[in-house]
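[09:14] KT: can someone run the structure on this one? pasting the chain below
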Amino acid sequence: MIPAVILADIERRIQEKTGNEQAKLTDYFDMIAGTSTGGILACFYLMPSLSDKGSCRYFAREAISLYKEHGEKIFKLKKKPKILSKMVGAAYSETGLETILTEKLSDVKLSDVKKACLITSYDIVKRGAVLFTAPVREKGKDYFLKDIARSTSAAPTYFEPAKINSIGGDTVHYLIDGGMYANDPTMCALVEARKHTFPNCQRPKFKDMYVVSVGTGEVKKEYDSNKVKKWGLISWIEPVIDIMMSSSAEVVSYQVDKIFDAVDCPENYVRLMPNLREPLHSLKPDLCDAKPEMDDVSPKNIIELEKAGMTFVNNNNELLDKIVAELIKN
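[09:31] RB: done, structure tokens below
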């Protein structure tokens, strides 16, 4: 919800600055990357237009409805207690998520998208990272977007691994959430971008790139050391995933920041990571009350998550205007 709100606002600002109400966020980026829920958003943004061959189908603001309208359908518990579901099998049925992805992404293939992209996942059978990339140049490397979105968001304990097949090939994958190794896919995207020929640049160097990286919001959950030292295998499962995914993103953000600093272009990398406890207004002490658990799809939390996104937008007007000016200039 939070990155969807922020990116929709960037799109709105682009439309206002250009006077073009039909301008889409994706018109102003050469490459889109995503992991997990960011991978779902990436697939949504990449959908080609039905009428305009060179454009994408959806406005960024339309992505917000994925979470507002379908959250409860996505996280539909199986017919057993939640704690038991997480211990024996995935907690949620993948049926709701797959139905929505089919509805929104239909049978569009990776080879159909008009922008370069990178979306992450991990193959648990072949034990290796899987990077879905476009343009598709090899036989057996084409997939349906709906399968890619399902794969990148197959978070362990929440959903079963996704079994998918390539199109026109014999490749079969059993995939889980790409956040297991690239919760922030920026570094993967930078390396991938170096391979491509873009409309105005071939195999770009870091100084040629402008990166806008949007996180899902952070609240660092504190663990009581007295309790932790008594934990066993079961107690450690969820904290390990939480710590692994958050620390992975922190390390990538640090590395990318230093890379752009090293090539004397620190302003070419912008990381937008809202704090879920950020004050609603600089003059008011009230805090957002959004919960960070990704399966908290209660109406109250959906409202609070949207509020957290808008709070970040309202508290960072100057920064967002600077980003938009850079996108329009280029």
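[09:33] KT: thanks! The CA atoms of residues 215 and 315 lie 16 Å apart.
[09:34] RB: yep, looked fine to me
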